[in-house]
Amino acid sequence: MKRYLITGASRGIGRAIAEELAAPDVTLMLHGRDTVALAQTRKSVESRCARVIPLIHDLAVTSGVSNLIAQVGSDPLDLLVNNAGIAVVKPFEEITMIEWEQTLGVNITAPFMLMQHFAPQMPPGSSIVNILSVAAKTGFPNWSSYCMSKFALEGLSQSIREELRDHRIRVINIYPAATDTDIWNNVDGNWPRDRMISAEEVAGAVAYALSRPADVMLENITLGNLSGDL
Ligand SMILES: NC(=O)c1ccc[n+]([C@@H]2O[C@H](COP(=O)([O-])OP(=O)(O)OC[C@H]3O[C@@H](n4cnc5c(N)ncnc54)[C@H](OP(=O)(O)O)[C@@H]3O)[C@@H](O)[C@H]2O)c1
Question: Which of 129, 130, 150, 131 is nearest to 139 (CA)?
Answer without folding.
Answer: 150
